Amino acid sequence: MKKNNFISIKDLTPKTILSLLKVAAQFKKNKKKCTPELKGKSVGLLFQKPSNRTRVSFEIAIWQMGGNCIYLSPEEIDLGKRESAADVARTLSRYLDCIVARTNSHQDVVDLAKWAEIPVINGLSDLTHPCQGLADLLSIQEKFKNFKGVTVAYIGDGNNVCHSLMLGCAKVGLNIHIASPKNYEPFLEMVSLAKDFAKGSGTKILLTNSPQEAVKGAQVIYADVWVSMGQEADSKKRLKDFQGFQINKDLVKLAEENYIFMHCLPAHRDLEVTTDVIDGKHSVVFDQAENRLHVQKAVLEFLVGNRK
User: Fold this and answer.
1) Any idea which fold 132-288 has?
2) Does the annotation mark 90 as catalytic?
3) Is the pTM of this model over 0.90?
4) Catalytic status, residue 129
């Protein structure tokens, strides 16, 4: 990846991913310890969408690393309407040391990175969610120690979370099965990228419309909401189209006995996943949520951290 930005997992080499995961694990081991990597640095959170995990994890990460965090709400910036992404990027570059952008459009993140003179981190866009993807890889690594021979079954919408998870798996050698309803499959351009990466890592990628086929023999089961932010107007149709894609006690029986259940949260219990599964002994969703904090520390340290 360009040393000064983190826009997509596709831009990371496998070596860099493993390095970031190693650093994140070290941060987690000393998670109560404040460190000076961002001492004297200021990071702006430029958000077009509300957030729980992304905002809190970045704010806490920056504070624990000795930095200063400024939250810029949608109303304050109104990116692309009140002011262009180019002008916002060039202005904030004069004040800040890094921008974390959570945007509706992926192009907005790309434009911010193009014009900014400081590092830009993609905190979520409609195409990818790379910080979530790294946290997912760390969560899997914690439970299985290595990636070889592990299969992830992602059940649901082929959305931004799915894209980053698929790219991450393809980079590090995790097999991934993706089951989505017809017309909700991951974007072809992202699938093509992942398949190219898979040639080097040995990853096996399966795309199917059958949750049962995807889950069979998997060690990881991953779900996401059926209706994401901004899709509320289509909720009735989506809830109908996703019938049969719920993670429940019958579906998980097809997975390996020691499977783990993952969800990027927020979750709608008894829609995409039943309460007994998400709150059961196989669930690691809150370990996964915590890992957002640690991987974001690793990314911040890599991009803008103070070097000795």
Assistant:
1) Rossmann fold (3.40.50)
2) no
3) yes
4) yes
